[in-house]
Amino acid sequence: xxxxxxxxxxxxxxxxxxxxxxxxxxxxxxxxxxxxxxxxxxxxxxxxxxxxxxxxxxxxxxxxxxxxxxxxxxxxxxxxxxxxxxxxxxxxxxxxxxxxxxxxxxxxxxxxxxxxxxxxxxxxxxxxxxxxxxxxxxxxxxxxxxxxxxxxxxxxxxxxxxxxxxxxxxxxxxxxxxxxxxxxxxxxxxxxxxxxxxxxxxxxxxxxxxxxxxxxxxxxxxxxxxxxxxxxxxxxxxxxxxxxxxxxxxxxxxxxxxxxxxxxxxxxxxxxxxxxxxxxxxxxxxxxxxxxxxxx
Length: 296
Fold this sequence. Notes:
The chain is mainly alpha-helical. 72% of the residues lie in helices and 0% in strands.
């Protein structure tokens, strides 16, 4: 081969290297959602819509006491009945939906952001940094999620903000381990080596190449974790560690209505249905995304 042909080949190779570093691997298109995924999305969107606009449509205040109409069964005037203080259960249901869904989405976001940052740092730098972060993650993962949340609540005290932090911290290990594993599998790929070869700094490699190629898997993990976050938040409120009376939340409504289940079934059935539908919808969406991801 002549020196001219060698020079031409080098130019072509450099051009291909630059293109690979700039674009990364080509992602396959997302396939159509399954029917169950559409159902899950519809249920979840309906609950979110009820939480946003529901309180303004119900003609009762969620904390308005009316002892004369206590324990009124579901009727046209009170579609979900009233509780032991005469408060409208529907008004409290839609108000509680705001809190329960906010805990679910907020805690999942906290776990996803913090866990992903830790996992990317551990996977990218390795060695001592990876060892230190992995040790912290293993310590957190040694506790079951609910138990870890209980420990954090015991330290911080009850309240909605503390429940968000507690449940969010409990979700950090799963996101950290997932993002760490993804970074380890990607950092030796050709397009990452190409990006480094042309002089891209580490932060650019992370933001332009690593994170875009881990987003899909992390979204699937977040959708699967959303239902668990809603359930854990409701469990903490059921134990009296979440939102405090007289404010409404599905878990707190279950707790307060449990003692009257023999005479007022609606006090536990309706908030229980709300929790069930939210968890079911999140799981259907997560499983649908997982199936779509596996089909690739």
